[in-house]
Task: structure prediction
Amino acid sequence: MENLLEKIKKASGRLQDCIKRFPFSFAILCLITVASAYMIITDEDLSKLTVSLIMAGMFCFLMELSLEYEIHRIRYLVPAVSILTGLLVFFLLKKYENEYIYTALAGIGVAVLSLAAYVLYKDRENRYLFSYLAKSAFIVWIFTAVILAGFSVCIAAFHFLIFHFDEIWKIYSILFLLVLGLFGITLFLSYVPRPNEEVSVPSIYRTIIHKALFYIYLILIGILYLYIFKIIITWQMPVGKLNWFGCFALLFYVIFYLSVDETDGKVQALFKTKGAYLLVPVLAIQLFAIVIRLNAYGLTTARFMSLILIAIAVGYMLSAIFHFHVSRCFLFIALISLLFSCTPLNIYDVPNKLQENRLKNALSKGGALVNGVLNENVVMEAEYLEDAKSAYDYLRYSDGTKSSFFETFKESKIAKSFSDYSYEEKNIRSFYYSIDLEGRDFDISHYSVLHLLSYRDQIGYNDELKDFFLSLEQEKESEYEEDLLEYEFNDGSKIVFRYIDYDYDLNSGSFDHLYWEGMLLK
Result:
């Protein structure tokens, strides 16, 4: 018991210390929790405000951490930058909400976290800091998960034994916000080391991660080398298999490069200085495989992001080879995050531009595009037609802006002929409704029979219920839950529904799928 009280007291002390170190960040975290809780309780959309507060909170933490590490010495910059950030983000979301804005915010968020890592690493040797933070995050996750599980059981017991909550999911959502959001994040921030603070990692963690898992990683590298030898011997490269494992190898290289230390063993010490060279053949064959895919299908957003992640891993490899401080790698991450999310080189426009060039090139070679003028009556060779279709299909469904040429091409005979190759675009109307009838009151005094009925029992019901189902509106789900959905037949019997789920194809006038259950009263 004394041990438990000591741990609770220690955790409480950590929370108090974190609030003293990062008071403005904690205040914004509280505002995020309140806004999210209000959104859950009232069903009012405050997502723009919440996103704005999250961005303000991230900038606030960066500024407070920089103040503590004496990157700057102006305390009032912390609230000023935070407020300006929040207002700017809210204005952008209110006026220009689109995929570009959210991508830019994601890139800025990654850049802010990278700059925070740069502040932590700037005047510190790369010794156990990453492992210390990873270990701390794991401890916080375990601690908060146990608390969350305990309170969840208590709420469930109260719900089933004492008082029935109509919307118990809201209680669980708010509990999740308070425990994993407010408490968990605050507790993790308390582990962020102060300037010149020595960090240590338990020996059991070093044994599991720095030794056992590290040797498993070396086995993966060995398998990739065998795969490379297989490619060289057979002179065949299976499509789409290497990139995933290559990315895993590069990702874990970064993790182990930041984690292992010379004191972990001779192999780890060698990996720290020479491990980057071990990855060069893997990286080379991976890039060769990507080039093959690019030549065949062009650049897509997914492949572009894969190349960005590879560039980040290469940055850490160069840090090991040329012995420059690892903190510069975090500056590099911040730079490319901003470059490929907030500029014309973003992850949507670059692939769209290259795919449009690929489309024009295929049309030109096929004789359908001469001096920028489209000739729709040309019969293109199958090779060029397939390339044009591939580029067109990507542009048709990709995010981001498209050029006036593409918008014009969409209406051409050539583009419309591609529908013979592709699936017809469906116009689907969906509806979902589910309610727990236990504890709900409904009048059964005029009926002699009550039993559970579903779409499986008598298919004939579906034909009569079709118009009723199609009259339901998803936006009125809360009203339906309050009043109960019922359908009365001509003979006086009725169904009280507990579950309805369907997708209706407006083009074909039929249900893609239809599932329902209810209580039949007759």
Notes: The mean pLDDT is 86. The first helix runs from residue 2 to 21. The chain has 18 helices and seven strands.
